[in-house]
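Hey, resending since the last one bounced:
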Amino acid sequence: MVSVIVPTYNSEKTLAKCLESIRNQTYKNVEVIVVDRFSKDKTIEIAKSYGAKVLQVNAERAEAKNFGLKNATGKYVLFVDSDMELTGDVIGECVDLIESYVRIGGIVIPERSVGKSFWVKVRDFERSFYVGTEVESARFFRRDLAEKVGGFDENVVLFEESTLPQKIERSGYNVKARIGAEILHHEEGFSLSKWLRKKFYYGRSVAKYKKRCGDYEIKQLGISNRLSIFLKDKKFYSKPMLAVGVLVLKLLEYCSIELGSMMSKLRRP
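The structure tokens again:
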């Protein structure tokens, strides 16, 4: 069995499409666990209509995922955001791959950003350069390993999704195996101002993340490393408008994160 864990908060606009895509997977031995942060809309109603097990906890994403993990019964776990849609054979390909090699502890699933706005197209273009880098993080895991290493780090919000695969990798397992089937990340409502406010909030825990993750943090957040990923790839220059958009977006993100980090330091006693 595969336990699919979906954290939610006021997710009524996207949740049905997410759960429908899980229901339509070619691989059927699946349980769905929705971990809700006490939504005020119809999120719970939608989740129950799809037969999901619904849990509620007032927690950040890492803690919510860990809460779902503790209540999972599958041999494997897949963590999916409520605005994501799985293409038909995501779970089947993950199971086939992880069952084929005992040292695979986590699997990366390719992601595409979906939406008509310029910034969503920029996000999708940006994602295409991260294949095989530490910017990507595994989403599909062996449950026993995820539990053994203690799940996600609940003390960080910046790159929290990478803390679990890092722990599993340090235990001697491969967490960079990848499948071909994609996840579609629906970002039709993408707002640049909201995105940058989120990055500002993430910046409040950047110092903790740097302390815990060392080399990973440099590869994920280091400005020179990120620029190198883009500028050394000839494909980056094939779409000049999107390339400029990526550079502008990353600059704004870095400024927001650093500002959040500075404000966090100023508030310390």
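Residues 2-189 form a domain with the Spore Coat Polysaccharide Biosynthesis Protein SpsA; Chain A fold (CATH 3.90.550.10).

Sorry for the duplicate.
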